[in-house]
Amino acid sequence: MKEKLSAYMIVLVTVLFVLSVSAAFAFQIDSPENAPVEEPVSITSYVLSSDPKNADSPRRERPETPETQLHQIFKFSQNIILQGIFEKSGYFFKVQKYWEPVYALAQIEYTVSPLIRDDVPASLTFFINDSPIYSCAVAYEEGASQIVFVPIPVEYLKKDFNEFALTGYVRLYDEEGCLDDFSGANWISISASSFIEVGYDLVEVGTQLSYYPYPLVSSVDPSGSDLTIFVPEKASEEELRTAFLMRADLGNETVTEDRIALKTLDHYEYSEGNALIIAQLSRLPQEAKEQYDALGKSFRSGAVVYEYRKGDSTVIVITASAKEDLFEGACMLADESRVIQEKYSWAHVPSGSAQNIMKNSQISSLISTGETVKSLTNQSGISFIGPFHQENTIYLPFSGGFVLGEGGKAEIKMRYSDNLDFERSLITVYWDNTPIASKKLSKEHANNDSFSFLFPSDVVGTHADSLKIAFDLEIPDVYCTKRADRMPWAYVSGDSTFYLPSGVSSTYDLALRPYPFEVLGLFNNLTVVVPDNMSETEYALFGRIAALTGVDIMPYGTMLVRFASDFVPEKENSNIIILGTWKDNSAIRALNDRMSFKYESDGSRFASNEQLLLSSRYAEEINVFQIIRHPNQEGRAILIVSGPNDKALTLADRFASVLSNTWTFAGDVFIIDPDLETKSFHFIEELPVRELSLRERVEQNKDAVLFTLISTAAMIMLFSGALLILLRYRRNVIEEEKKS
Prior knowledge:
16 helices, six-stranded antiparallel β-sheet, about 750 residues, globular
């Protein structure tokens, strides 16, 4: 009997082993563990192979720089804390295509932890576009801030965004040469007053469209105060539509202030400075028509964009025989990948070009929501070096028009050192500063691990500027870890993916501007409703609203302009912006009963409501932004920007021309008074977030479901096999007992 029992047990173990191997094989079919192993980025090995003891003293005096026509200062936006044994942080700055850089340098102001003294090896290393350019030793100097000047070789700069990165490398030892257990105390703080300076000359460009938006808006005139956009008097809907896109696009080029003007062509003859003229061919001013005729070309369809000099100023014209083609010229100028191809002073843009691009697969890359670590950071991966808490921030390329949709998920591919205390080591991912998922690290998967998760429902419908990946790399007996090759580390590979679908917010708030009127850099089924006869103030307001809602805009969304007399809100399946006064815009009068701050019956002033009692004079002088839900279209919103008179309307343009003021927009009602003081209110009730259905969860998580099904099937097979063996064993025992 014992021999038979032993035999059955051997068979049982064999079956279990075979089934386990089969299940494991099934799991590995698409497993990232079978993917080729990617080498860590070189930046880490460079820093760790550099001995801080051998680093030179920091350069305290500004190096001599050659004379240049102009220079640009790029100030750090906030303090940077480098903490622990090794940490890296980057700062991006842009070299414009019309610059010829002559010199570049960084002035870095920093303070260091009192633990970092002369006998503690510590250094700062600086990189430009991942290439090391300078290292220096650092040490504590009685709490005083210190300055180091970092020369940047201009040959390392590229005409676009450049990354200036800096790393702190600190090792703390005691008398026995052991690593200090409190490496979080060995910080280096980089002050927000640090900056990068680039001295440059201007490239001689002549009249060449490929350099747009230069010279209309440039580092020479960063506020656009020397630029006016002109449209004909009583401009058509298509002329206004084209002007709206161009005003939005040029507004994105301004710095600190936005002083671009939008006026009618009756002001052009007396104007000075740069100009952008948008008009149907038959409505061009005489000077611009003569320049068109000088091209010696005749086009029956499509748009023509041309540039010419007017004294010391530049004029760019967008025109077309058919007003429906005007928008084609604006789309070409606003698409950098297209305008950079136009090496001459004029270009013809065929009809339907924008529509063809929308249909072309290239547009999918413009609005893709599947982002890899490599595409987001321009690095092959992210390294985390040293014990304890290490984190890295990944900035998202989405404008404020993005909110996270349902079904967001991530797959992080990683590896890490095998000398960790795996009971306490883990990875955590944050949506901005909100933790959304964590996972313990494990020794058996140290060489090739993955972490997949769904974004929790409480961050659906919210906006974030960044994702953050953090590792807690705890090691046992950290007190005497002398060897650098035993330093704990982790590495996230560049093909790690974040799927970030664009969604719908459960509420409307101007703090999320430009959402919902723009999503992922595209106008989101937007209709702008203007008075039939616009005043000069309303033209200026029209341009200001374009700048406010066209943040980082691409020219391939859906955007229309409608006159109030042709507009019926109940029939318009779009997000809507309405501007003007009660008197000028009939659409405002039609929606008055739905507004949070209604007008009095004669439209001379706003009426008080349950949240704010308005004095008579104050109610006549304020400008009000207010969002309401579309009365007939679920998921659509209407923004009404209005005032009782033209004087009140000017407040929006005055207030929002200072770009820092635009960051204060909040609530679904925002009031600006004559002193440019503001108030915000919330009237719209937040809708509950819709839970995903079972079918939607399955469709959005096919891999996880497949894995679950395979593992469940494997467990059923294991259980069934074991049960059959045990049943057969019991039957044989019964039969043996009967025979005996």
